[in-house]
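Page 47, continued from p. 46.
Same chain as before, 151 aa.
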Amino acid sequence: MTKELELDQEKAQTVKGMDAGHDVKLKLCEEQLDIFKTRVQTGDVIVRKEVVTEEKIIVVPVNREELVIERKVFDAENPDKMKGHTEIIRIPVSEEHIEIVKHPTALEDVTIYKRQFQESAHVEEILKKEKVHVETIGNAAFVEKEAENRS
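Result:
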């Protein structure tokens, strides 16, 4: 037997012992490819926002008002002498208070999306095809004839 056609034992015996007027038919087959694609999850993507805290120290000048009352007390025994002592009273009137208001400010826009693109994948596969090979022993004669209705 040749590698080109591997007939099983039963078919080989049928061909050897056939009678005149009886045809033996062999069905020759070949492999063909059917290609399917399946979607497979290859990974996960986790998108999250992280809040980072930062302590800021800012020096802010603050204004304050106070009412100043200045009193000069004279010496009663010596009114001609302008000597005496001065008394100062301070009364706060207004002051600035610091008020902190925080507000979000947009830094950037981040867009997340999936994009599809097409690549070509090269697939290699070995296909088998059966061919008939006729061996004759002795003076057996045969005529090879093409079938007219091949599909």
